[in-house]
Amino acid sequence: MIFPESEKSVSNVNLTVDSWNNISKYVGVKNAFFIFDEQRVVGSGVWVKSFLKLVQNNQWILLSATPGDTWTDYVPVFIANGFYKNKSEFERRHVIFSRFSKFPKVDRYVEVSRLLKLRNSITVYMHYNKRTIAHDNNVPVPFDRELLNTVLIKRWNLYEQRPVRDVAELCCLMRKVVNSDPRRAHIVGQLLAKHQKIIVFYNFNYELDILLQLGEDLGVTTAQWNGHKHEQIPETESWMYLVQYAAGAEGWNCIETDTIVFFSQNYSYKATIQAAGRIDRINTPFTDLYYYYLRSNSVIDLAIQKAFNNKRNFNEHRFMAA
C-alpha cells in the first residue's frame, strides 16, 4: 500500500529506500517515519551521530535479529530514547573499566537491573512460526601443536622469523597457525562433496587464499563477497561462495543452498547469527538447513568460543524474557 510515488500510496505517503551509507543526507528531515533495517548504530561513528540527530525530529523503528552483543552496543539507542544524555553519562553510571589494560576495556557493568529494565522497555520480540529447522554441527578440526607452541611459548613469529611484538600480534599469529592447518581445508572439501553447494564464511585474507586454492584443486566454481568483490552466486552444479564476515554477514540472501560452513570463528554473536540468516529466508525451498562450525580445541579457539558464548547468553536472556 506504499509506493515511491505518493499518488499511488495510501494517504499520499512518499516512500524512499536508501542505504545506511547515505544516512547523513537525512539529518535535516522532519516529521517522517524511518524504518531502519539492521542494527548499525553501534559505536560513535558517522552513522551513530547522524542517527541521533535524525531521531530528534522523526518517528522511527529499528529492526534487528540481534540488537547487540553487550550493553555498550545499546548505548546509541538508549541515548535516542532519552535515557542518557551521552555515552559519557552511560559509562559513568554503568561501566567499570579494567585497571590493568593499556586501552579502555570493560571489566564489568553495574546497575544491570536498570539496564535490563531499559532494554525491556524499548525492545519488542516478534514471534513467528518458523518453517525451517536449523541443524548446528560442531566439527572438531586438528591443529599443529608444535607450531602453536612456537608462537605461544617461544613468542616467535613463524611467518616473519622474528620475536612477537605484542599480545595483539600473538593472538593473530595463534589464529593463523590454527586456521591455516591444511586439514581444516580438507574438511571443507568433504562437506562440499556432501552438499555440492556451500557458503563459506571466513575472517582473514589468508583464509580466502586457502579456500580459493581448495576450489582450484577440486575444480569447483568459486565466487566471493568481501571488501573487494561482490560476485553473483554461481549457477553451476557445484560451487563454493566465499564470504568475509565483516563484508557479507548482512544485506544479501541465498535460497540456492541449504548449507553454510563457518571456516573460522568470529568473536561476535551478532555477526555469526546474521551470517547464518543468509540462507534462512521465508522463500527458501529448503526445510532443513545445515550449519557447520569448524573448531579446534586449541587455546585460542577455546578463548574465542568463551567470548562468543558470553555474548550468546547476553542475547538469549533477552529472548527468554520476551
Overview of this protein structure:
The chain has 322 residues and is α/β, with parallel strands linked by helices. Helices cover 37% and strands 18% of the residues. It contains eleven helices and twelve strands. It has helices at residues 46-54, 75-80, 87-94, 112-122, 145-152, 167-179, 182-195, 205-218, 245-248, 269-276, 299-321, and strands at 33-37, 59-63, 95-97, 106-109, 133-140, 156-157, 162-163, 197-202, 221-225, 239-244, 259-262, 288-295. Helix 5 runs antiparallel to helix 6 (167-179) and helix 7 (182-195) crosses helix 8. The protein starts with 32 loop residues before the first strand and ends with a helix. The mean pLDDT is 91.
Write the layout of secondary structure elements.
Layout: E1 33-37, H1 46-54, E2 59-63, H2 75-80, H3 87-94, E3 95-97, E4 106-109, H4 112-122, E5 133-140, H5 145-152, E6 156-157, E7 162-163, H6 167-179, H7 182-195, E8 197-202, H8 205-218, E9 221-225, E10 239-244, H9 245-248, E11 259-262, H10 269-276, E12 288-295, H11 299-321
Parallel strand pairs: 1-2, 5-12, 8-10, 8-11, 9-10, 11-12
Antiparallel strand pairs: 3-4, 6-7
Summarize, please.
This protein has 322 residues and is α/β, with parallel strands linked by helices. It has 11 helices and 12 strands.
The major beta sheet can be summarized as:
6 strands, parallel
Question: Which word captures the global form?
Answer: globular
* Tally of individual helices: 11
The residue fraction in helices comes out at 25-40%
Would you tell me the overall average pLDDT?
Answer: 91
How much of the residues is beta strand, in percent? 15-25%
Query: How far apart are the first and last residues' alpha carbons, in Å?
Result: 30 Å
Main structural class: alpha/beta
With strands numbered from the N-terminus, the spatial order across the biggest sheet is: 5-12-11-8-10-9
Give the SSE order as H and E letters. EHEHHEEHEHEEHHEHEEHEHEH
Low-pLDDT stretches: none
Extended strand count: 12
* Gyration radius, rounded: 22 Å
